[in-house]
Amino acid sequence: MNTSSKLRRFLRETTPLFAVMLFLAMINAVTSPEFPWAIFPIGAMMIAVLVTASKIFLADEGADDAAGQALRGREAARVAHRSETSARLAQAQAYKRQIDALVNATGDPLRKDKLRELSDQVAIWVKEVEAMARRIEEFKHNEVIQNDLVAVPQAIKKLTAQLATETDPNVRASIERTLAARADQMQSLQKLQSLTRQAEVQLENTVAALGAIYSQVLAMQSTDRAADYGHLTAEVNEQSRMLKDQLEALEEVKLDRRQANLSNS
User: Which of 9, 25, 191, 250 has the most CB within a 10 Å radius?
Assistant: First the structure.
C-alpha cells in the first residue's frame, strides 16, 4: 500500500474522532473558556488516533503484500473454477439443444417419437446437471465455509496447545468441550469438501457421457434402419440417477454453526 493510499485510509478512519475533538473544543470555548476541560477527552481520543496511525503507517509491508497475494490467489482460483463449472454446464446444455434439433429435423414419425422420448429424459438429466453446478458453486463461493476451512484447523491447534498446558480442572473441561465441538465441525467440513470433489468428478463424467450419447444418436440418424434408442434412454436414466444421488449426498451435509459463538475461535 503506497503513502497516498495509507493517508486516505488514515483520514477515513480518524475523521470522526477529529470532528468530535473539534466539537468538544468549541463547547469548551463557549461554556467555560477559563478552564480547558476539553483537553482531557481530546487527549483520550488522540490515543485512538495514534493507535490507528501506527497500524496504518507502521504496518509490515511484507505481511500486507503476502496477505494481498494470498487473497488474489484465492480469488483467481475461484474465478478459474467458476469458468470450469460454467463451461461444463454450457456443454451439457449445448448437447441438449443439438438433440432437440435432431428431433425437429427428423421426418420419420416412429423415429421422431423415440428420439423425442430420449430428448425428454436428457432434459431431466440436464436439470440435474444445472442443480449440481449450482451446488458446487455455492460451496466454492460460500465465504463462511471457506473461512471456516482456514479458521477451524487453527482453532483446533490453539485449543490443543492450551489443553496441554492448562492445569485447572474446570478450564480443562471447558477446553475439551470446545475442542470436541471444533473437531465435529472440522469433520463436517472435510466431508463436504470430499463430497464436492466427488461431485466435480461426477459432473465431468456426466458431460462426457452426454457427449457420447449425442455421438451415438448422430450415428444412428445416419442409418436407414429404424433406430432403437431404448438402450440410450436407459443409460441416460442411470446417469441421471447417479447425479441425483450425488446431489442429495451434498444436500444432506449439515454444518454445525454452534461453534460460531464459542470462545477460543
Answer: 250
Q: What angle do CA 15, 68, 135 make, to 5 degrees?
A: 110
Q: Where are the domains positioned within the chain?
A: 3-59, 108-261
Q: Are 136 and 199 in contact (CB under 8 A)?
A: yes
Separation of alpha carbons 176 and 112, rounded Å: 66
Q: 176, 101, 89: which is closest to 128 by C-alpha?
A: 89
How buried is 133 (Cβ within 10 angstroms: 0-12 exposed, 13-18 middle, 19+ buried)?
Answer: buried
Angle between helix axes 109-140 and 61-105 (nearest 10 degrees) is 170
Residue 259: the pLDDT is 42
Please identify every stretch of the chain with a pLDDT value under 70, giving residue numbers as ranges.
1-2, 59-83, 222-228, 253-265
CB count within 10 Å of CB 138 equals 12
pLDDT of residue 222: 64
Instruction: Copy the grid coordinates of residue 62.
Output: 511484507
Compute the distance between CA of residue 36 and CA of residue 31 in angstroms, rounded to an integer. 10
- Which grid coordinates are listed for 54? 501506527
CA distance to 107, 125, 160, per residue, from 217 (Å): 15, 16, 59
**Joined grid coordinates for residue 179:** 475442542
- 199, burial (CB in 10 Å: exposed 0-12, middle 13-18, buried 19+): buried
pTM of the model: 0.56
Amino acid at the residue 253: V
The pLDDT of residue 36: 83
Question: Where do we find the cell 420419420?
Answer: 108
For residue 25, give every residue at least 6 positions away whose Cβ sits within 8 Å of its Cβ, in sequence order, or none.
Answer: 38, 42
Q: Following CA atoms 105, 111, 115, 116 in sequence, which dihedral angle do they give, to the nearest 10 degrees?
A: 80
Contact indicator for 227, 115 with CB cutoff of 8 Å: yes
